[in-house]
Amino acid sequence: MWNDPEIIALNPGLKDYLPAAAITTVHRSDASGTTEIFTRALTSFSSDWKAGGAQSVQWPGKGLGGKGNAGVAADVLTTPNSIGYVELAYAISNSMPFAQLVNQAGKTVTANGASVNAAMAEFANAFTDKLTAIIVDGKSDGAWPISGYTYIILHTTSMQDCTKAQKIIDFLKWAETDPTAQKAATTLGYSTLPDAVRTSVLAKLAQVTCSGQLLK
């Protein structure tokens, strides 16, 4: 229920606004990285969450399922007393209100570029050799606890069209270093990489080859 005593305890200023109504949960009906980030966070938050952390899980209860971030957003916007999870960009572009969270450090944080950046910075040394990392439930004061990366899958040694390969590398370097690109990402609701992470990405790009030759 929205007026559950534990919710009111965390939100005393909303005591007169939280209704005596059942909470309807909305989740992704399709397998997705967004779901994996969200459920990995839930797994870290509490042993009460039993469904695990994966791109697709067996959801408890009788919640609604929507396809893609857009489907979840649409269901939340049209279903009274509902709550769901979407990329921050969808929440911003659809003017959806979203909750603040108390992170592992006991700090109340808001989802934004700074709090996601803090999560990335904390786990800057946690990458696999393929530059993947789990960055949920960080311990630093400013970290947003439901954070994750958007990945680009790149063939690093098997590309044969070297003109196309060089264009790809040029684009990725531009996206990570050009102020215009960084501003565009921020405007869309995404966080740019902290310096420690960007350094790792650029170092990996410097190792990419085409037909056995290093790309510039």
List segments where confidence is low: pLDDT < 50 over at least 5 consecutive residues.
none
Mean pLDDT: 94
**What is the element string, with H for helices and E for strands?**
HEHEHEHEEHHHHEE
Distance between the termini: 57 Å
Task: Give the number of helices.
Answer: 8
Question: Per DSSP, what share of the residues sits in E-state strands of 2 or more residues?
Answer: 5-15%
Could you describe the 3D structure shown?
The structure is a single chain. The chain has 216 residues and is mostly helical. Helices cover 38% and strands 9% of the residues. Strands 2-1-3 form a three-stranded parallel beta sheet. β1, α2 and β2 (64-66) form a beta-alpha-beta unit.
